[in-house]
Amino acid sequence: MEGKTKHLILSNTEWKMFVLLNFLMNKADRSATLEEIKQHTGIPETSISYYLEKIYNVVEEVGNNEEIKIYKIGPFLHLEAKSPVSVNILRKNYIANSFFMYFLQELYHHRFSNLMKAADERYISYDTAKRELVKCKNYFSVYDLSLFPKKRVENMLEGSEVQIRYMYFCTVLTQFGFDSKRFFERKNVSLENFLGNFQGKIPTSSYMKLEIFYQICLDRAKAGKLLGADFHLPHLFDDHCVDKQEFFHQAKCLFAGFRLTEEELRKECEFLHFIFYTLVFEPLGNVREPEKMENYTEFEIYTQTLERYFETKLTKKERFFAYFMLNKCLAWCETFHVNFAFPSLTLEKRRIEELNPKKMYLWEKTITSLKQEKSLGKFFQHNQNLEFFLLRICNTIFFHRKERCKVFFLTYSTTFQYTAMEKLQERFLNLSLEFTTNIEEADVIITSVDLPKQRIKTPFVCWINVPFDTNDWQHIEKMFNAFSERRYGLDE
């Protein structure tokens, strides 16, 4: 499968570009003859200048302040780098910043994307976007998934949820240069038994993430690339998900036969625990009150700022959730400094904007205020991912809230009315819709029938056609947005 998909994500030219860069980086003196390069990459001497220009463009676009120079001296190419350069990270960032990945993430998270709007947001032409769409269709077909780019289709992806998740994880692995087919076909019994101990204790969505990250860590340790003596992890508080001592005892079995010293083994187990701590996502409804509060200042600043700008009051459970997740993200930001979040941040901003357009304005005011706080400002300076993490916490809280909304729905067609009511429940996930037959107690009225005006007590009334057309859905969405704005105190 890897052979089928790697050239669907990257073009043949892009793939050769990274092969060339990797080939030079792995040479002892970072030099190679043009004949060696041709044999290894298939790039002829006449095309070398073209590929060097593309490499410089990639480093400038997605590099993390890396500076490289590649010189052509007679029959040789020589690479110089002022700082360590990871080809895997460059390739990952390049793919993450591509329209293909942007479009794929939208489909994965929303099951729908407006191609014209996506093209505008990524500053590419509509014709280029259509070519990328063909690439996406071919890519999905490898995983037995179908893509239906029709305007009126609500779910553009057709296939099992298991295959959709599998496809997404394979894509992530490909970003890092792993052969996803061989990765998943390998059977690590020790790892399966280890993770099996946590089934029922952690969400199913976290299980595959842990399996992937742990296998990568074990491969690294087995190859002798151990964590350095200067690698330190931040202090973690107990999140009640797993006993740390029991975790260490079981994790040691994963390194059987690795010939590690006691200190090396302790450090590797500590890193596995850190990954477990930061990657396991505890749903908002499952959080428990912490025994003690650490990073309390940052937590209070974050929650108070949210409450002030969004003019809301967080519940006790929402505050606990914000506390746990803030600690996780601060620990991650303190440890890792790779910037992966720009496309993800864009997606999170769209989520909050779709929930309520005015919330995006409130979030911008919130994040500006947080960046000015001294205790949080140091994290913003050292890690560009923090805004993404904080916005995801905010989104999770607001998407978890289901505003109660009583809906009076009346049309001439009983069958259509029943179907439309189901569609409304699926479409407006931020609302808990309760359908009522009492017009006077309704918060929202949707009707294709004339109603006595004296019985209508709400300003939120929408007249529709049967069946719904595009304009009807737009009017209904506008009405529900107006209803949400009033409930949040955001109406003008």
TrEMBL record:
<feature type="domain" description="Mga helix-turn-helix">
    <location>
        <begin position="86"/>
        <end position="170"/>
    </location>
</feature>
<protein>
    <submittedName>
        <fullName>Mga helix-turn-helix domain-containing protein</fullName>
    </submittedName>
</protein>
<keyword id="KW-0804">Transcription</keyword>
<dbReference type="InterPro" id="IPR050661">
    <property type="entry name" value="BglG_antiterminators"/>
</dbReference>
<dbReference type="InterPro" id="IPR007737">
    <property type="entry name" value="Mga_HTH"/>
</dbReference>
<dbReference type="Pfam" id="PF05043">
    <property type="entry name" value="Mga"/>
</dbReference>
<keyword id="KW-0805">Transcription regulation</keyword>
